[in-house]
Amino acid sequence: MKQRMPSGTGLRRGARTGLRAAVAAGLALATVATVSSCALPRPRVKVPTSFPSPTFTSGYDATPSYEPTYSPSPTEETYDPDGRSDAHGSNCDFSDSLRQFTYTVSITNPSMNDSFSYDMAVNWMKAKPADGKAYGLHERSITVGPGDTETYTAKYTVNQSSIGQFWFTCEITRAQKTRM
To answer: What is the C-alpha to C-alpha distance for residues 127 and 92, in angstroms, rounded to an integer?
Structure first.
């Protein structure tokens, strides 16, 4: 046999009514508490009239963590040992009667403090066809004082009695610079 239960929560009618009354009373109490707290005076908060300046701090230390091991003195100049930029040539020529190549070379020392020795090499190169072969080589060392310019004529004499027609260029191939 089945027993029938009334629909609902299984509580009796009187208990449900009491529960509703308790919930309604709790809501009423919460409402009264909320409304009454608005009527209470608020605590006074004192706002400062001047604020301290903000300070910036970062995790980065601007002080370098190393020190250079060498620093040249202010009087010591640095220089490029390849002195070809200090040397310039002009009057690239060949004399048929002397069978001699000539090239005027000028070296200007850019330093105002130091003298330099220049180990020079001048080549007379084959131009047509330009195959990298040299007709002749002239080598010389020359010392140039601070701020001075020295000029000399590089020469190379051909050993052949008859050369014929040829094309050539003049080139400063070395100007090794050494402080004196």
So the answer is: 13
* 35 backbone dihedrals φ, ψ, rounded to 5°: -65, -40
| The two structure tokens encoding residue 128 | 């047509």
> Which of left, alpha, beta for 173 (phi over 0: left; psi -120 to 50: alpha)?
alpha
Q: Residue 89, class by beta-carbon neighbours within 10 Å (0-12 exposed, 13-18 middle, 19+ buried)?
A: middle
Dump pLDDT digits (tens) for 32-71. Answer: 555 555 555 555 656 556 655 555 555 555 555 555 555 5
pTM of the model: 0.57
> d(Cα 87, Cα 109) in Å, to the nearest integer?
9
- CA 90 – CA 100 distance, rounded (Å): 16
Q: Which residues contact 89 (CB under 8 A, 6 or more apart)?
A: 103, 104, 105, 106, 122, 170, 171, 172
Q: How far is Cα 65 from Cα 67, in angstroms, rounded to an integer?
A: 7
Q: Are strands 168-179 and 116-126 parallel, antiparallel or unpaired?
A: antiparallel
Judged by phi (left if over 0) then psi (alpha if -120 to 50, else beta), residue 54 lies in: beta
